[in-house]
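To close the section, here is one more complete example, presented without commentary so you can practise reading it yourself. The ligand is pyridoxal-5'-phosphate.
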Amino acid sequence: MATSKRSLQRLLSRVCMETRRTYGVPPQGHGHKSSPLSSSQHLINLEYEYSAHNYHPVPIVFSQAKGSSIWDPEGNKYLDFLSAYSAVNQGHCHPRIMKALQDQAEKLTLSSRAFYNDRFPVFAEHITNMFGYDMVLPMNTGAEGVETALKLARKWGYEKKKIPIDEASSSKQLSTIILAMEIAHGMFIDQDYNHNWVFLVFSKLFIIFYLIIGLSTRFFEFEKSILEWVIRPSLLKMVTILFGWQVIIPPDGYLKTVRDLCSKYNILMIADEIQTGLARTGKMLACDWEQVRPDVVILGKALGGGVIPVSAVLADKDVMLCIRPGEHGSTFGGNPLASEVAIASLDVIKEEGLAERSDHLGQEFRHQLLKVQQQFPDIIKEVRGRGLFNAVEFNSKTLSSVSAYDICLKLKERGVLAKPTHDTIVRLTPPLCMSSDELQEGSKTLHEVLELDLPKMQKAKPEKMSSIASTTCDLCKLLMFKLR
Ligand SMILES: Cc1ncc(COP(=O)(O)O)c(C=O)c1O
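Output:
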């Protein structure tokens, strides 16, 4: 224990001391003179000691933020290329959203839905008009939004699709919820608590099939036929399809095919747009890329403008009214503070044309990233994305012992904050207000890391340590990533 604490402290001091690329002063002009008790190192130590190790953060402490810039307690400035997983699409501390928060906080913050308040009805009308659905069910976090949509799907299955309750609750039943693509739900839905439902995580299903029939690459027709096979009504009574991309862009026609199959077999299509929605991919919803209208849409993250958790489930009356008073709810869902912030957050996205901006800047950014790929064709396997929802996937063989996390540490040392996904992918999803020059700074920094830092890192980490080093958290020594 003592040894791992010492090595943690050594690592932290190295990381904190090495990071000295400053870009500007914090907006409020302080933060430079951090005392030992407010230093990055002390705060990281505190969190490590007193908080569960359920995350593996890049060691940077956010102390102030504005737009797409972050300052740590020492006053170092960084560019944010994560946007809190799309929660700050509008940029950090957007003045209009902050004003909505402050004004409402002085008037009324909570009524609970035991009573009415004067902001939620206005928000409900606003969001349903904006997305063209009859009704909204407000929640707080995205996880709650997903849970709500699944509950709604089950109720709809019993009531509207007329799945017999005994059949749906028998362990042999085949009512199935399909979670399509690589998604976040695995983290939120504990299958142990869902004995009555079969969850098929699509990407895993594909992997199983690939293993069985020896295919090594995905291709659309194959996915389509599996989809058709999985949801044929003789096999299943009900299927709910959710998708939420982890920067996996479905092939053209995928969403439309899902929509068509759902309509054909009376299946509820649920789109988890918590991360991809609200302008992130260059449209208000990612489904808009194929003019697909899901039966249920889940929104979250940027709905709260990065200020307060707000999530919402949108559906038409025939689905939404399956839930009756007392069957589902949340003390904080639809609270006046969240409602007012959400109205402002939606208005900012619309009025600042963030969807168009994301589309346009995304193309520019990918162009720059592709140039980096051309310079390092062996290292970068793929650059992919839509709008400002992008990822760079590295070639695990040529990356050798170095992981995406290691690359993110180097990016951070050079002033760019990004997050690894799995062992070989770096997500690049900046706030949608980021300037063209700042995006350029991001791609230039990636180039510098690959040119200057990567060779040194590869030398420092011996090849034979590869699978172990890249799967172990440098801080807590827990296994963080899958083995290669
Ligand atoms: C697609 C998707 N759905 C749901 C969630 C859960 O959202 P929250 O963390 O607000 O509970 C996430 C979080 O990253 C997500 O990416």
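Once you have examined the tokens, check your reading against these statements. Residues 85, 141-143, 146, 183-184, 244, 272, 274-275, 300 surround pyridoxal-5'-phosphate (CB under 6 Å). The two ends are 28 Å apart (CA to CA).
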